[in-house]
Amino acid sequence: MSKSPTVPLTLCRDHASTLPAGGPASPDPASALHEVLDRLGPSIFAGLLDTDGVLRYANQAALQAIGSTPEQVIGRRFDDTPWWQACDLSRRRLQHALASALRGGAPRFDVRVATSSGATLSMDFSLLPLYGADGRVAWLIPSARDVTEREQAQQQLLLTRHAVEQANDALLQVGPDGAFRDANAAACRLLGLEREQLLRLRVPDIDTQVDPAQWPQRWRDLCEGRSLRFETSVRHREGHEIPVDVSVSLVTSDGTSFAHVCIDDLRERCAAERRIRQLLQFDELTGLPNRQLLFERLAATLQTRTETAVLVLELDRFKRINDGLGPHIGDAVLREAAQRIAATVRNADLVARRGGDEFVIVMPSPAVPVLHTAKALLEHIARPMSIEGHEIHITGSIGIATAPADGDHSDTLLRRANAALHQAKLLGRNQASVYSGAPHDDDPERLALETALRHALRDEQFDLHYQPQIELTHGRIVGVEALLRWQHPTLGRIAPDRFIPIAEETGLIVAIGDWVLRRAVEQAAAWQRAGLPPLRMAVNLSARQLLQPDLARRIEALLAASGLDPHLFGVEVTENMLIANFDQAVLHLQALRALGVEVSLDDFGTGYSSLSYLRRLPVDVVKIDRSLVPDVTAPAEDVSITRAIITMAHSLRMKVLAEGVESEGQAALLAANQCDQMQGYWFSAALPAAAVETMLRDGRQVDPALLGRRSRQRTLLLVDDEENIVAALRRLLRAEGWLVLSASSAEQALQLMARHQVDVILSDQRMPGMTGVELLRRARQLYPNTIRLVLSGYTELQSITDAINEGAIYKFLAKPWDDEQLRAHLREAFALKEMADQNRRLDQEVQTANRELAGLNGRLQSLLSAQREQNKREVGSREAAQELLDAVPVPVFGIDDEGLLVFANAHAQALCGRVGDLLGTPAAEQLPQALRQALEGEPMLVTLAQRRWWAMSRGLNGNARGRLLVLLPEAGAPT
After folding, report:
1. Alpha helix (H) ranges present in 894-928?
2. 456-698 has which fold?
3. What is the DSSP letter of 408?
4. In CA terms, which of 353, 758, 803, 876 is 20 to 30 Å from 179?
């Protein structure tokens, strides 16, 4: 509601003659009274009524409020004048007041009166009697004071109090002594206390992390930093502790300070994290550790260098139970088997379910011979099971490998235990077999690759390719990941997943890793010297490299020698390599970050450690594993693990990079969900250095419009009624690239703010109609996210100070200004605005993440259930195919497309006169000469084992690739 205009007042002397003869004894007192009324403040309306209620005089403030001349209102009954047209209730109160004043009363009440603009004002109205010489009431003096702002302030204060009281978060006020001064209903509910009880307590009474002696230091920290944010736990009245997130802001007003405290209950989030960890670490059906946790704990055990036995137990012909009795009976059998296995081994041993009907037992420092334990397991499994009225008999087969004799890596031990398990099945099942082969004889090509790998560095067979990493705000290339490639002169291109495990097991990975670091740093430095756009070079570290004590020092030396800016270099580590030596790994990563090197956590989302360790890791970037990127396209009503990871990483102030982006839709959705960067085949595969350089010189990028993240131009609003000032400011700020709007009045400024998204307001103080402080107060109410500054040559100290204290003004700048200082202040204001916008966005994302986490359990359960069913089908298909071919009464051989013998049924092995497994060996070495010729030609007769056979070979072009060789007795006719 606007105020009446404030203009100089003049005395309406020409109406003194309208005073009736029955009034005061002489005109001089009346004139004096008129002058007194006209000298009242511009917000005070006053007049003079006779005893009939007729208006005989009105001061200038009252007349201007309704836009009337004295002739239009003087001589009319006061209750019939325009002031009283806005409210019938106010008119009736006036009529009662007239009667009361004539009886000698002095009524006072709040009314609403009209103004010439059509608005109404809230007024504090009083009516005073003026007595004549005879002691009777001769005149009545009405007066009113504008209390509109007071009423609005009271209403705003009431609304603010209601908002605080109805807020979902617990809100409290705390004094410098730690005592609670105020608390809303949510705080009382959180602590289980009545408000009166809570206000008798101090912070140390409820905060489990603060004792009375610590409180003074906590208050000093708040006064220095102005705000604090931390996690702690508070005590409930019933004694239990509640985990909470606490935000504290210091509030200072009129020399008094107190802390505004906002408490967020973390119980639901903590419960969701525990549930997620449970789902990620343990098998849902049996409650045993799952495959992922098995690998992590086995790796940790092997790091201790103690003797460790690994047993792989598989139930024999389990598929018959599922097919014959139903999956629910099969699940019950798996649960019973899991309980029997756990009851047979020690508490220190690890029992895990790797999938399907397969279990793994890890036994550190076995107290008895491992074969004794294996036989006990087989005996317990073989005991009859009674399930839902069915008596079920089942057996198991076990393969055993030990460390360090059979290997010191998880993959190696499990592979060799599997080889032993296969041998146990060949022996007739319900057996335990110990791996007894020489190193790598289960992989005939491994020795050849290991030998070739030792010469690869010497012969310069390695090369680096670089996959671009794209920033998802502007679509530009901001980094590359260096990827190792091996081109062997005779074997051709060898995939990294084939030779990297060999390099890690043999220790060659250290030399190869040093070569990769040196080559990547040199290439990045060359791009830097060539003047190409700056981009960060990321290099993957191996587990062995991360354990080297001088890792940070060697990388620092490489950077110094090449002249590469450390901020243009980064390293990537995986979660699994951090588990065994977490503290040592953290120290190395902290040392690298201290150099300015960026640290990325690779393959995020594939291990359980992410939730429990992520907050403790010195990590700048979280790289979402490529297996989770398609999840970002999940419908909005479903929970997306990818979106939850983005939100969680941002809440920890980490950037997010998505790997394996293969479609435009994935890129757009990642950008829409505030993912920071991406890499993948959609933009570019890994390329040689020359191709990347060409791409950079051509300025190739993703269209920002496609990503939906085109940045908005910074907007500045200049408010000053002097055109030359505005013109000077525009010239000064022309080079900054900001969108500059200007207004010559507060009203025009408010109109511009309604049409444009303004970031920063720079206003003069003295302007017609509304001062700069009043404008910025109004802007704070309407657009609280703006940054507001005053630029004035007049220092109205009290109003400026009040506005700054209440938050209406960010800074006061004086005219005339220093150009550089003014530009610096405005840049600082824009930076503050961007930071505040970012914080608000993060807060919204955290709230969204909490909602998404609530539905995450169902999504994960569905994924795990689908995986379990797929494992069962794969196991069943494998067993069925094996049993079917074993039952064929003729010799059958399978040769893959690399010439290895991958299958030979029992008749085939008997025909060749070999005892044991032929699989994995070159077919050219194992098959008789006659059969080798049959692999390449038409059906032919051959003589083997004193019999004549038709040998027929057929190519396989489906999922199985290679050839199938079948021998039929001569009596059979080839087709």
Report:
1. 906-912, 923-926
2. TIM Barrel (3.20.20)
3. S
4. 803
